[in-house]
Amino acid sequence: MGDMAEKRRPGAVKGAKLAEYKAKRDFSKSPEPSGRGAPSTGASKDPTRFFCVQKHLASHLHYDFRLEHDGVLVSWAVPKGPSLNPADKRLAMKVEDHPFDYGEFEGVIPEGYGAGIVLLWDRGTWEPEPGFENVGKSLAKGELKFRLNGVKLKGGWVIVNTGSRGGGEGRSWLLIKHRDEWAGAVDVVSRFPTSVKSDGDFEDILAQENPDVWDSHRPAKGGEAGEMFQRIIEKALALKQAPAAKAPRAKKAPAKKSLAKKSLAKKAPARGARPKSRAR
Ligand code: MN
Q1: CA–CA gap between residue 170 and residue 260 (Å, rounded)
Q2: Rounded to 5 degrees, what are φ and ψ at 91?
Q3: 53 CA to middle of ligand 1, Å?
Q4: Distance 96 CA to ligand 1 centre (A)
C-alpha cells in the first residue's frame, strides 16, 4: 500500500526523490530541513508554484535555483547566478531535488555536505509558459519555459539542457532571461546582494547565528570540515571588511542607485553597461 498511498496523498513528500538529498546529509549535524515537511500545493489546480534562489557560500560561491514541482524543489546550482541580460546564458548544474520546506531555509551549515552559509536571495512564485504545462515532460525533454514572480527576478525565462555538449553527463543546463520588460543590463546579483528574508548579507547571517565567530575566527569542529568552515568564515570576513576598506566605490553610493533603477526600467540594452568587476 505504501507507494500508491504516498503518491496519491497531495501533500506527500516523495521519499524516493529525496533519497539523494538525505543520503548526503547528517541531520543531527546540519540545520537543514530533513524533508519531513509537507509541500503546500500538491495536486492543486493553481498553476503557480513556489520558487527560490539561495545564495550559497560554500567551497565556491553559487546560487541554487529551485522550482517547486511534484512536491519537491527541482534544483540547479548556478555559479554566476541569474542574469537579467538575455544575452547571458548562465550555466546551471542540475543537483539533487530538495525538500519543499528547504525553500525558506537560511542559515549556517557548520559542517558536512554544503558546509557554509545559505542566504535566501529571492523567492516567489513561478508558472510554466503555455506549451510547457507538463513540467515533468518538459524537464525530461530538457527545455522548460516559465515565468517568475519573485522579488528580484520576474518575467519570462528558459532553462535548457545542453545535452552532451556540457560534458557533465547531461547535468549542464543554461538559464536564460527572455527579452521582456523585466530584462535589463543591471547586474542583479551584485546590485541586490542581500536576503529577501532577513535583509542581511552572509556576514549578518553568520554573526547572527555565531555571535562569537568574529572574535574567535575559529570553527567549532576540527578536521577537514573545520578547515573548510574556516575558509568560509574568512571569505565572509573579507566580504564584511571590503565595503569599509574601499569606501569610495561602495555599492550603496546614492548616485549609482538611481542609475541602477534607470537601467532596470530600460528595455534590454546592450551588454556591458556596467562592468562586471565586482567578483574580485
Ligand atoms: Mn548549494
Answers
A1: 36
A2: -60, 135
A3: 10
A4: 10
CA–centroid distance, residue 62 to ligand 1 (Å): 7
DSSP per position, 184-210: -SS-HHHHS-S-TTTS--HHHHHHHH-
Integer Cα distance of 214 and 112 in angstroms: 22
Place of cell 538559464: 175
pLDDT digits 0-9 by tens, 92-151: 999 999 999 999 999 988 778 888 899 999 999 999 999 999 999 999 999 999 999 999
Q: What's the burial of 229, exposed, middle or buried (CB within 10 Å: 0-12/13-18/19+)? A: buried
pLDDT in tens, 156-210: 999 999 986 655 568 999 999 999 999 999 999 999 999 999 999 988 888 786 6
- Residue 49 amino acid letter: R
Q: How far is the CA of 102 from the centre of ligand 1 (A)?
A: 11
DSSP string, 131-188: T---HHHHHHHTEEEEEEEESS-EEEEEEEE-GGGGSSTT-EEEEEE-SSTT--SS-H
CB of 109 within 8 A of CB of 29?
no
Give the whole-angstrom CA distance, residue 246 versus residue 225.
32
Could you tell me the distance, in angstroms and rounded to a whole number, from the CA of residue 59 to the centre of ligand 1? 10
Pairing of strands 154-161, 143-150: antiparallel
Spatial separation of the C-alpha atoms in residues 158 and 88, rounded to whole Å: 12
Nearest in space to 127 (alpha carbons), one of 50, 75, 196: 50
Distance 24 CA to ligand 1 centre (A): 12
Query: Which residues fall within 8 angstroms of residue 256, CB to CB, at 6 or more apart?
Result: none
